[in-house]
Amino acid sequence: MLNSMQEPGAGFGYDTNKVSILSSNGQISESTLASKQQIAEFIIHTTVLREG
To answer: Are the C-beta atoms of 52 and 29 separated by less than 8 Å?
Structure first.
């Protein structure tokens, strides 16, 4: 089942992705369409490093 808000070129079967992260205080951080490596770095910087 595809998400109706899925951006073309994002998700399984692509080399790129786009994510949204909801923090415990309700803040939403959204990435741009980027390589999976860049998305991993975005997730680390948005979650682990922000909390540290």
So the answer is: no
Between CA 13 and CA 2 the distance in angstroms is 12
The answer to whether residues 28 and 50 touch, using CB atoms and an 8 Å cutoff, is no
In tens, the pLDDT along 7-19 reads: 888 888 899 999 9
- At residue 1, the 3 state secondary structure works out as coil
Query: Which residues, 6+ apart, have CB-to-CB distance to 38 below 8 Å?
Result: 31
Rounded CA-CA distance 32/44 in Å is 15
Specify the pTM. Answer: 0.76
